[in-house]
Structure formats: C-alpha cells, structure tokens
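Hey, I'm writing a tutorial for new members on how sequence and structure tokens pair up, and I'd like a real worked example in the thread rather than a made-up one. If someone can provide the structure for the chain below, I'll link this post from the tutorial.
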Amino acid sequence: METFDIEILDEEKPGSQAEFQLPVNYTATGTVNTDDVKIYIRRDVYESVRRYATSDTSRELGCILVGNYQEDIGSLHVVIDHFIPARYTESGAATLTFTHETWNDIYREMDEKYPAERIVGWQHTHPGYGVFLSSYDLFIQEYFFNGPFQLAYVIDPVQHQEGFFQWKKGSVEKSGGFYIYEEPESEPAAKNKPSHVGRRSRKTRYIIFIALLAALAAALIGWHFWQQSRVREKETLLFQEPAIQSFCEKKQPCFFQHAVQTYRPAQRGLQAE
C-alpha cells in the first residue's frame, strides 16, 4: 500500500479547460470505448515514463502527468505532453510517499516550465504485483486527483503491464485503452525545413543574377562592336565624297582625315561615359 504526504492541489475553476488542437496522428493501445475519457499521451513522453518506471524495480516510483484537456463532441479529451518525476520521495517495495519537498519541486517545475498547462494525473509503479488501484490509491485519486480529467496511470515494470484509470459517472474505472500520438513538427522545426529550400532558392537567385550580368555584358560588347561598325561605315562614306577625295589628292593637309581621327576618340570617350 502506498502512503502519501500530499498537499492538496489547486482546484480547477469551472470553464477553465484549455482550447488547443487535439492530436490527429495517433495509434490506439487497447480498446478505447465510446464512453471512455479519450487519453492521448505523446510518444516520447510515453517512452520516457516507461523507461523511468523500469529504472528501479526494487521500489515504487511515481511521477506527475502534465498536459491539458477539453471537451469535444460530448467526449472528454485529455492530452499528456510532459511528466515530472517525483523526486525526494520516500518509497519501498509497496510504498510511496510524496513529501513536502516532492511537491515543492513539482510546483516549482510547473511554474518554470509549464505555466500554461495543468496537472492531469499521476503515475506510480507496482513492481511485480499487477495493474490495479489499491484502496489507498483510490483514496488518493478521490481526494487529491478528483477532477473529471485527472487520471491515474499504473505501470508494472516487472510483468510489463500498464493501465490508465479514469473518472466515469462519479467512480474510478479502468480505461479500455488510450492513444499514443506523434508530436507534429514544431514551428521552429517547420521553419528549419524550408530553410534548406531557402538556401537552394538563394543559390538559384544567385545563378540567375550571374546569368543576367553575363547577358548584359554580352549586350554591351555587341553594342560596342555595332557602334564601331557604324563609325567605319561613316568613314567610308565620308571619303567617298568626290570633293574630299580631290582635296586629299592635292596632298593638302586633309581636314577631314583629322576630323575622322578626332571623331573616333570622341566616340570612345562617349562610350566610356
């Protein structure tokens, strides 16, 4: 039989249930009856609680289940997404005492890590003697975990058995089953995933930018050669004028040749600008 040194938990205020998205990716363990409380425990939490339960089978261990609950379509849904090991306990092969230090540690961790969540139940082990609630377990459940959403979770780490106990029509009954759900990608993880795509997008933009620069450089070079051909064409037309040819044939200082020679550098200067 377990013995407890317990401080009474804060009473739940009417209508204080949380609004949150219920899990959608889950698998059932056992058979969840239609009138059962729908219990969802996150897979990593489920595995961690079971590892904790098997860490010492010479004595009883316990923890507090943390999460939230809400009513939906006439059913009560309880989601367990964290747990707090009961430290500073006094325990034996069939006893477990939550001391004042235990509760102080639990409340401190609730305030620091899970201020928006609530205690949705408790867990303890029965190493080697099955899954049930003793008369003293029932006393603890009725007087200290009596919210309709508060559960008792018992694990026998020796016989590898487990079970949840729920409130149903004013009494505590064993649940037919529960759900283990997968945690959806958190917001930071969801952002990290596209960030890899973002790196590829930046690389693509860089390649496009380089390609545009290359195309612009090719266009400028083409324009430069086109301008040069225009200058040569104008020179040819200029020297084909009869008056200019006659003037130059007299071996006079050819003003037009000088003009052409100065015209080319002027063009290059304009292009450089």
